[in-house]
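Review form for a predicted model. The reviewer records the input and the model, then writes brief findings.
Reviewer: anonymous (R2)
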Amino acid sequence: MRALGIDLGSKRIGIAISDRSGIIASPLRVLARSGSPRRDHAAIAALAVEEEVELLVVGLPLNMNGTLGPAAQAALREADALATVVAVPVVTFDERRTTVTADRALIEGGISARGRRALVDKVAAAVMLQHWLDSRAAQAR
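Model under review:
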C-alpha cells in the first residue's frame, strides 16, 4: 500500500511518501501554506493522485501525556476537511517528537540551520509515516 504522510504546520506542510510495498517512508516535499486551507488541500489532493497513493496519514500532535490539546484538535479538523477533497481514506497517527527526531538526524548529517529549516518538515513527515508503517507491519504479524 502506498501512503502519503502529512505533517501539518502553520507555515509549511511536510509531505512524505512510502514505497509501493508500504515498507519504507521517504521525504517528498514541503508545501508552503498558501493562506487558504482549500488551496492547500487541493494541492495535497493533486499530489495524492500524481503519486498514486491509497491512503493519507496525517500527523496528530498529541500532548506528551497522550491527550488531545489545541494543536491535535486543529489537526483532526484539518484531516476531516482534507478527507472531503481526496479520493482515498485519511487517517491520523501520533506524531509526538517527530520534528525533534528529524532535526537531530539533520544535525547529525551536518546540515546547516538554514538547510534544516528547509528540510525538517518533510523529514518529520517521513519519520511519522515510517512509524505508522512499522506499527501496521507489527499488527499484521
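Findings: The beta strands are 3-8, 12-18, 25-32, 55-60, 90-94.
Further findings: Residues 113-140 form the longest helix (28 residues).
Recommendation: see findings above.
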